[in-house]
Amino acid sequence: MNQRNVLLTVVTLALSTSAWAEFTATPEQARGIAKEAYLYGFPVVEMYKTLYTQAVDETSANYKAPFNQIGNTAKAFTAKDTAFVTPNADTPYSFVWMDLRAEPLVLTLPPVEEHRYYSVQLIDAYTQNFAYLGTRSTGNNGGHFMIAGPDWQGKQPLNIDRLLRSESNIAYALYRTQLFDDADLAKVKQIQKGYKVETLSHYDKHKAPPAPAKIAWPKPAPTMSDTPDLFRYLNFMLAFTPPQDVEKDLLARFKTIGIEAGKPFDLSKLSADQRQALEDGIADAKAEFAQFKKSRVDTHEVTSGDFFGTRDHLKGNYLYRYAGANMGIFGNSAEEANYIGYFVDKDNHPVDASKHDYTLHFDKGALPPADAFWSLTMYDGRNKLLVANPLNRYLINSRMLPDLKLDADGGLTLYIQNKAPAKELESNWLPAPNGPFYGVLRLYLPKPEVNSGQWKMPLLTPVNQQDQ
C-alpha cells in the first residue's frame, strides 16, 4: 500500500476524532461558498445514500451485495423499488460497489447475442461516468476488464482486455441487460450469472495485498441532502477522492467553511450567523436550479446529454452535474442513451394528470431513432418513482410496437392519463398518477439525428380540462 493509501486509511479511521476544519469565511463570503459547495457536493452525497442502502445496510429492502461482489436484480424495476429516483424499467440491473483502495477489480463479461443491448456504466464518487463496457463500447463478445483506483501503480496482466481508471477509490458499476418481455426473464438471469467480479490478486492468482482498514460508514440522515448536514457527508466521501489539480482553488474556498476531506463537520460548532449563511447559500443554489430547470431544461434548450459524462465532458459545470443527480441520478452519457424529459405540455404548463388527460403523437416514420431500443417511462412528480397502476405498466417501448394500435395514417398516439381510456385504446395507455407527473423518453444507442437535433421530439398535448 503506497503512502497516499496509508493516508487515506488514516483519514478514514480518524473521521470522528481528527481536527475540526476551521471556519474562516465571513458570513457574507460563506453564503456564496455554500452555494457552490452545495451544487458540487449534492451528487456525491446522493450517491452515498444509494451506496449505503445497496452495499452497507444489510437490513435495507434495497440491499444488493457487499463491496466488490455483484448483486443481480432478475426483474425490471417496479413501483416498489425506491433505491434511487427515475429508474428505468426496461433493463434489469446488476450492481457492484467497488472498493479500490487495496487493489483493482476485474469484471468479466460473457458473450451476449448481437441483438440484445447490455452495458456496464462505470461511475466515480462524483457521479461522473468515467467509462463504459458492453454493446457500444466493447461489443457483445465479452471479455476481462480491470478497474483501478487513482493510486494503483501495478502492472496490467496481458490477458486483460482493457484497463480503466476511476478518479475515486469508491466507485460504482451499474449493469443494464435488456429484457424483451416476461418470457425473456430466464435468459436475462442466465446472462447475469455470467457477470463475474473478482480482485486482481484472485484473478491473477498472486498473493493478495493487505486488506484495507474497515470503514465506519455514517448512517444517512433524513435531511442530509437539503441542509448544511450535507457537508458532513461530503467531507466523509472526499476522503476517497484524491483532489484534482483543476479543483485546487475551489477546494481552498470550501475549506474556509469547514469542508475538507476526512474532517468532521459539526453544525453545533457554528455560530448562528455562520449556520444561517450556509442555509441561505443552499437556498440560493436550489433557487438557481429551479430557474435553470424552468427556463432551459423544461424548454429542452439543454438535454440529459449535457448532465452526464466524464469530467472532461462536464467541463466543471457543477450546476449540470447537480441537475443530473437531482432529476435522475446515474443517467447515461449521451452516446449511450438520450433522455428526453416531459415535465411540461406543448403550452409549457406543468403536466398534472388530475387536471388533464394527454396524448403524445408520433407521425408515421418519425418514431424515436435508436439503434438499440426506445422507451417512454412514467414517474410520479412527487416522489420521482414509478407509478403503481392496475396494469402494472410502467412504460411503453419499441418492443411493444406489435401490440400497439396505430392511427389510420400509420402514426402512433399514446394516451397519458390517470384513468383508463376507451377499451379499444387501452393498449396505448401509459397510466399516470392522479396528480403531477413526468415522463422520460429514453433512446438507447441514439442515432446521430437525435444528438444533432435533426429529429424533433413530439410534445404532450392536453385533451381535456377538469373543473378546479
List its traits:
468 residues, alpha+beta, Immunoglobulin-like, Jelly Rolls, 2 domains, 25% helix
Give a brief outline of the structure.
The chain contains ten helices and 17 strands. Helix content is 25%, strand content 21%.
Residue stretches low in confidence (pLDDT < 50, at least 5 long) are 1-17
What does the average pLDDT come to?
93
CATH class of the largest domain: Mainly Beta
- Largest sheet descriptor: 5 strands, antiparallel
Strand order within the widest beta sheet: 1-2-8-4-5
User: How much of the polypeptide forms β-strand, as a percent range?
Assistant: 15-25%
Succession of helices and strands:
HHEEEEEEEEHEHHHHHHEEEEEEEHE
With helices defined by DSSP (H or I, 4 residues minimum), what is the helix count? 10
Principal-axis shape equals: globular
Q: Total domains, how many?
A: 2
Give the helix/strand class. alpha+beta
Superfamily at the CATH H level of the largest domain?
A: Domain of unknown function DUF1254
Which fold does the CATH topology of the largest domain refer to?
A: Immunoglobulin-like
Number of strands: 17
**Can you name the CATH architecture of the largest domain?**
Sandwich
Q: What fraction, in percent, of the residue positions are helical?
A: 25-40%
Give the radius of gyration.
Answer: 23 Å
Determine the N-to-C terminus distance: 66 Å
Q: Please identify the oligomeric state.
A: single chain
